[in-house]
Design the sequence.
């Protein structure tokens, strides 16, 4: 596990222009300032699965990776389940397992990275990291494109948390005061407990909107105490975490195709996909470990 430290111990905290430049791979503060003046040209912008991707290139990519490495070493609250090593979408669901028999609701922030504005990124550097205003501006220009956090950068996930940490802290305080467990996984918000009511969901939405963000209008889901809760791709039940039926069916269909020789694609490609699905499933339920040793997955593609 990575040893984490308070934000005041971060090399970024109160860094001057030359120190910041050195941390990010530039020769001097002057060189860094010159680079950010035109760094928006250092992105590859393209569409993937209907989503716009803004991927940093070359020196900008290196700088983003270095910044990400520095940010993930800082202590973060327990409610954050993304962007740092050792936390994941499964851990996000597991955080609510003790409330399997209670109410819950989930909601998404619509187009979070595209809505994460220059203003809040700058504020996080100026206030949380206590950078001089001009240094905060330089660093902000290095990590935003067209006024928002890029959608395809290695730093985007952890940076989006710091940009809106004050908002997430407010939501957490609101939940804690009512005995409700809160977690966030990038743009997914989950609240569970007896107090996870529609009234609380309305308050969470008001907080989100007050920071210029928009809760996705069709992606707020409410769960009654007796119902399984779908939380970041895991089914939280009274018997523990379970693999969602959709992924369970996909495993069954892959095995059926391999056993029946009804494979319309490369056999080894399908086997590798099935191994991946079983490996993921075994994180939810131990019984999926045994099929990983199936002779079907050990056979060569020529058999």
Sequence:
């Amino acid at each position: 596990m990575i040893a984490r430290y308070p934000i005041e111990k971060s090399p970024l905290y109160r860094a001057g222009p030359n120190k910041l430049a050195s941390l990010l791979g530039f020769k001097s503060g002057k060189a860094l300032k010159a680079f950010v003046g035109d760094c928006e040209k250092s992105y590859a912008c393209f569409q993937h699965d209907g989503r716009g991707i803004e991927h940093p290139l070359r020196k900008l990519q290196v700088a983003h990776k270095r910044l990400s490495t520095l940010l993930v070493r800082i202590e973060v609250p327990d409610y954050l389940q993304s962007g740092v090593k050792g936390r994941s979408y499964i851990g996000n669901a597991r955080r609510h397992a003790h409330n399997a028999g209670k109410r819950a609701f989930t909601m998404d922030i619509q187009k979070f990275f595209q809505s994460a504005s220059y203003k809040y990124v700058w504020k996080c550097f100026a206030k949380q990291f206590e950078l001089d205003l001009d240094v905060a501006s330089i660093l902000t220009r290095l990590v935003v494109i067209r006024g928002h956090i890029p959608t395809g950068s290695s730093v985007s996930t952890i940076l989006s948390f710091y940009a809106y940490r004050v908002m997430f802290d407010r939501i957490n305080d609101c939940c804690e005061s009512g005995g409700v467990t809160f977690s966030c996984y990038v743009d997914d918000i989950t609240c569970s407990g007896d107090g996870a009511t529609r009234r609380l969901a309305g308050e969470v939405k008001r907080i989100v909107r007050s920071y210029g963000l928009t809760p996705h209008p069709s992606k707020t889901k409410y769960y009654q105490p007796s119902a399984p809760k779908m939380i970041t791709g895991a089914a939280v039940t009274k018997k523990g975490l379970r693999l969602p039926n959709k992924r369970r069916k996909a495993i069954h269909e892959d095995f059926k195709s391999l056993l029946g020789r009804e494979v319309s694609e490369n056999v080894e490609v399908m086997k590798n996909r099935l191994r991946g699905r079983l490996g993921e499933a075994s994180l939810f339920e131990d019984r999926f470990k045994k099929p990983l040793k199936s002779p079907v997955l050990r056979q060569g593609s020529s058999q």
User: Anything to note?
Assistant: Residues 267-282 form the longest helix (16 residues). The chain has a mean pLDDT of 92. The first strand starts at residue 43 and ends at 48.
